[in-house]
Structure formats: C-alpha cells, structure tokens
Design a protein that fits this description.
The complex is a heterodimer of chains A (114) and B (114). Chain A has 114 residues and is mostly beta strands. Chain A is built from no helices and eleven strands. Chain B starts with a strand and ends with a strand. The chains are: A mainly beta (114), B mainly beta (114). Chains A and B meet through β5 and β10 of A and β5 and β11 of B.
C-alpha cells in the first residue's frame, strides 16, 4: 500500500508570492491534516479536513488555507509569503478523524522563502 | 503559556541501555497521549499511544507510563539500539469535533551509541 504522498518535495519562493502544496492520502483514508514544522516553533497543527470540509483549524493567519477534494486529496495554499513561512509542511492522513491510531505522515514539503 | 513541556532536549545512551523521555502538560482536557518518532528527512511516525484510563502500555521495547494526577507521561525505550536514534515527540491531543488535535512537545533528540 502506498504511503502519504506530498508534492513537490522542495520548493523555493520569494516573499510576496503564493504557493500551493499537494497531499495524496493513503488509499481509503478520508481525513487529512496539515502541520508546519520549524526549528523555532516546532511542530504545529494547521488544519484538518474530512469529507471536503474543514473540521478544525490551528492558530495561523488567514494567509494559510486549504481544501480537500472528493477523492480525499488535499491542497494547502499560503498567500503573500513571508520569510517566516520557511518550514517543512507535513501532511497526515487517517482512516477517520476519530481513529487517531491510524494516522500516517507524509515526508513533507520543504518550503524556502527568500 | 507553554502547554506541553518535553524533556530532556537531547539524550545520549549506550546500546542496551534504557532511554527515558518525559512530557508534562497543562490542559486536563487532553485525552489521547501519543509519542511520535521522526528520522531525518522523514515525517513523524506514531510509535505508541495511551488513553487516560490506562496507566501503562507496553509494545515490544517501548512503554508509556501515564500519571494523570501529575499531568505527565513518559516514554521508556528498553534495550536501546542504534536504530532508535531519532527525534521523539510527545503530542497530547484534544478531542475536537470528533477529531484529535495534537499539541506537540519540542522534541528529544536521542542518540544511541553502539
């Protein structure tokens, strides 16, 4: 069974640009969550989607947004990039939001903002 | 206010030794207590988790001890191996809208010398 896939793996952008990251969950998994990992702030929850609906959102500005498609694939978008947005963005999928033990992380997208 | 405090920040043990990592939390509403393992270049992977109605859970060489009154839980790695060298995160989680939303500790870098 294929794991969680994230594309692209590496990305370089400049301040003020926007970026879209993609996540393909494990087959059959319907819940997708996004996280930001930085040396300064550690691992932080961004948002979670289930059945194309955002169910929970972390404490991030509105520049961070996401969506989920009918096939459970998800995208996150960051607009007006800032230097502090440089981070590893991780996607995780689970069978069901209530089944935390079934959550698996992807390898992440490394975003560098210059 | 730091909700989750993980210690130590780094840990060096000899092969065959016991590794102990601690996690203290503030929010008594947390009701799922996982530990994640992350290797360089990879996303975190769920290692072991415990529910608050259980004081200890063992899976192979890995044990979680949970002390609800003290608001802390710990990870014990018995017979530590060089392959266990990784960063470990505690992530006590809150139930929200049917999902589990984690708050991650800052991580513990474990090195096991052969």
């Amino acid at each position: 069974k294929a794991g969680v896939t994230q594309t692209p793996r590496y990305l370089i952008k400049t301040r003020g640009q926007q970026v879209t990251l993609s996540c393909s969950p494990i087959s059959g998994h319907r819940s997708v969550s996004w996280y930001q990992q930085t040396p300064g702030q550690g691992l932080q929850f961004l948002f979670e989607y289930f059945s194309e609906t955002q169910r929970n959102k972390g404490n991030f500005p509105g520049r961070f947004s996401g969506r989920q498609f009918s096939n459970s694939r998800s995208e996150m978008n960051v607009s007006t990039l800032e230097l502090g947005d440089s981070a590893l963005y991780l996607c995780a999928s689970s069978l069901d939001p209530g089944l935390a033990d079934t959550q698996y992380f992807g390898p992440g997208t490394r975003l560098t903002v210059l | 206010q730091q909700q989750v405090k993980q210690s130590p920040q780094s840990l060096i043990v000899q092969k065959g030794g016991i590794s102990i990592i601690n996690c203290a939390y503030e929010n008594t509403a947390f009701d799922y207590f996982p530990w994640y393992q992350q290797f360089p270049g990879k996303g975190p992977a769920l290692l072991i988790a415990i529910r608050p109605d259980v004081s200890e859970k063992k899976e192979g060489r890995f044990t979680i001890s949970f002390n609800k009154s003290a608001k802390q839980f710990s990870l014990h790695i018995m017979d530590s191996q060089p392959g266990d060298s990784a960063t470990y995160f505690c992530a006590p989680s809150l139930r929200s809208g049917g999902s589990y939303i984690p708050t991650f500790g800052r991580g513990t870098s474990l090195i096991v010398h052969p």
